[in-house]
Amino acid sequence: MRVLVTGGCGFIGSHLTEALVREGHQVRVLDNFFSGKRSNLRTVARDVEILKGDCADPRAAARAVAGVEVVYHEAAVPSVARSVDDPLLSHRANSTATITMLTAARDAGVRRLIYAGSSSVYGDTPTLPKREDMPTRPLSPYAIGKLTGEQYLRVFHRLYGLETLTLRYFNVFGPRQDPGSPYSGVISLFTTALLNGRTPVIYGDGRQSRDFTFVENVVRANLLALRAPRAEGQAVNVATQRQITLLQLLAELSKLIGVKVKAEKRPVRRGDIRHSLAHIGAARRLLGYKPTIDFETGLRRTVEWYRSQA
Ligand code: UD1
Asked: Distance between CA 238 and CA 247 in Å, rounded?
């Protein structure tokens, strides 16, 4: 198939692009290099067409979708904390970019668009695990942007028959996640802090929990989504279905890396969610998904990767 991956030079996008190439698809990437890097696609550079452009720019979007059958829309500015500091940047990169890609896809006769959604849309509603039919209650501009994106997908499916599908990712981690900013994912920050003898920072008491999901599981869900016949118009959780607190995460990392650490405590970040845990029955039913790499194995591979980069 001819496939477009937006954000294909980023963390999740590059893993997905590699897997699609391995499966024999013809892959084009659209990336504005806000956080993506060409070097992330080093292993498949000769097999992939890379376009530089912004998903919120209708001309770049139109150029990217031309002749494409399926779009994976992975491009985003994925930080909750950053969206609290800069809501307009988040809105453009998450909401505006998504409706622009959807409109371009509709106009070009794209068959299917698969979207990187987020567990942040659930907010702090009390019931765990989160099922897709539970109410959403976004707590940050980022979560609003991600929810707006998935609502547009649902409506584009109803109005125009575009086969849309949202995968609500739960805290994805793994090789290539960039630890270079205070807005980076917590596993990338903790791991590189411990490897480099720095003190990790915990916002709050460290008892907040996440359903950390190794990137390979997310790639697998995306490959299944390419052909899933009954998933159109839906939003589906993609996770491990295991609840890990930040204190547990830190203990596991200390063991793997072989250091003793005491974190520096800072106040809870605004917009932060307390607990996040997915129910993954819908992904199993609609996609045939099950996580194949558990948390510990994923963490070990992640540590090895950051070590190899040192
Ligand atoms: C993450 C993703 C987001 C995704 C969502 C659901 C990142 C940057 N964000 O948001 O794109 O949609 O999961 O899948 O990957 N924390 C610390 N110390 C740090 C950094 C973070 O204590 O140095 C805390 C945060 O306050 C939060 C938790 O760790 O309580 C997780 O934070 P983070 O990794 O930024 O992810 P989410 O906000 O959950």
From this structure: 23
